[in-house]
Amino acid sequence: MIEKIAALPSAVKQYLLITTNYWFFTLTDGALRMLVLLYFYQLGYAPFAIAMLFLFYEVFGVITNLVGGWLGARIGLNKTMNMGLLMQVVALVMLSIPEQYLTVAWVMLAQALSGIAKDLNKMSAKSSIKALVPSSENGQMQAGLFRWVAYLTGSKNALKGCGFFLGAFLLNATGFSLAMLMMAAVLAIILMLSLSTLQGDLGKAKHKVKFKQMFSNDTSLNYLAAARLFLFAARDVWFVVALPLFLVSHLGWEHTDVGMFMALWIIGYGIIQTSTPKFFIRKNQRNIDGDLLSFWGGSLAVVTLLLSLGLFYVEDINIKVENLLVAGLFVFGAVFAINSALHSYVIIAMAKEDGASMDVGFYYMANALGRLLGTVLSGVLYQFTNLVTCLVLSAIFAGLSALLIRKISVKA
To answer: What one-character-per-residue DSSP string does 126-173 give?
Structure first.
C-alpha cells in the first residue's frame, strides 16, 4: 500500500494529504458543534443564548474567508491550512477547562478561534484543487474538476455528519472536557503530518496580490456569492439551533438520537454531493449555467415550503409529526446537496488560475455570512415562534438564491 501511494503523481499525493487533513479537521468541527449545543442546552441555556455561543464562530468565519483568501495567495495555502489546524487545537484545549470556568465570554472566544480555523482550513483545501487539477478546454464542463470538488466537499460533509454523532456520543461517554482533550490530541498529530508533507508554495500567487483585491469586481461572481449566502441561510435557519432543540424538547429524543439523526442527514447529504457529477455527466450536461442552478434552487424552495405547510396542517393530514419531519428533511437534504455541489464546482471553475484563493475566499465569505444569518435567526425564531416559521423563512431564502443565481453569465 505504501509503495502504491509513493508511486502516485505528486499532485495526487498532495490532494490525498489535503483531503486527509480536511477530513480530520471536519470530524472535530462537527463534534465540537454538537458538544457545545447539547452541553449548554443541558446546562439550561435558552435557544437564543445557545445561538449566541456560535455568533463569534460565524462572524470570524466571514472575516477569515475574506482575509484568508488574500493571505493564501500571499504566503501559500499550505501555511493557511496549518494555521487553521493549530488554531483548532488551541480552541479545543481552551474548552477543556473545568465547567465552572466555562463562561459565555470564554466559550465565545474559543468559538471565534474555531471559526477562524474552520474557514482557513476550508478555503485552503478547496482553493488547492484549482492548483492541482489541470484546466479543460473550450469552456465545457470540466468533468474531472467537477468530480474532485464533489469528492472533497461530499466526503467532508459525510465526515461532519460522523462528527455530529461523535460529539453526542462523547458527551455521554466521556463528558465535555475529556472529549475536547481527546480531539485536540488527534488533531495535533494531523498537524505534525501536515507540517512535514504539504508543498511549501501550494496556491501561492505568482504576482504580488494587493489587499484591495480581496473584493471581487466580477459581476457573475458577486451574484454567485449572493446566491450562496441565501442558500446556506436557508439551511442553517432551521438546522443549527431550531431542529436539534425541537427534537429534544418536543419529540423527547435523547442526545445520542439527535446526534445520530443529524449525522445520518449530513452523511446522506455528503453522499449525494459526491454523486452529483455522475448524474450530470450521465445526462450529458455540457454546461453548468445560471438557468440550471436556478432550477435546483427553485426546487429547494418548493420542497421546503411543502414541508412547512405539511407540519402546519399535520393534524389535518393525519401523519405523525416525527415521520413527516424526518422524511421531509431527508428530501430537503438531497436537493440541497445537489445545489451545494453545483455551486461549489462553479466557483472553483470560475476562479482565476493565479491566486484562486482570492476568488474562493470572497465566495466563502458570502457562505459564512449566510451561516451567520441562519444561525442567529434559528435561535431567535425558535425561541419566540416555532420550527415551522424557521422552515417558511428557509423557503424564502432558497427562492432568493434561485433568483440571484439566474444572473450569472459564465458557463462552467
So the answer is: HHHHHHHSPP-STT---HHHHHHHHHHHHHHHHHHHHHHHHHHHHHHH
Q: Which residues contact 379 (CB under 8 A, 6 or more apart)?
A: 47, 48, 49, 50, 51, 52, 240, 241, 242
> How many domains in the chain?
1
Domain holding 284: CATH number?
Answer: 1.20.1250.20
pTM check: above 0.85: no
Task: Tell me the residue length of the chain.
Answer: 412
Residue 84, domain extent:
2-405
SS3 helix, strand, coil % of the chain, rounded to 5? 80, 0, 20
Contact 214, 362 (CB under 8 A): yes
Which grid cell sits at 8?
502516485
Predicted local distance difference test score (pLDDT) of residue 16: 78
Do residues 135 and 142 make contact, with C-beta atoms less than 8 angstroms apart? yes
- For 28-81, write each residue's pLDDT tens digit: 999 998 899 889 888 888 888 888 888 888 888 888 877 877 777 777 778 888
Tell me the three cell numbers of residue 337: 446537496
CA 370 to chain CA mean position, Å: 11
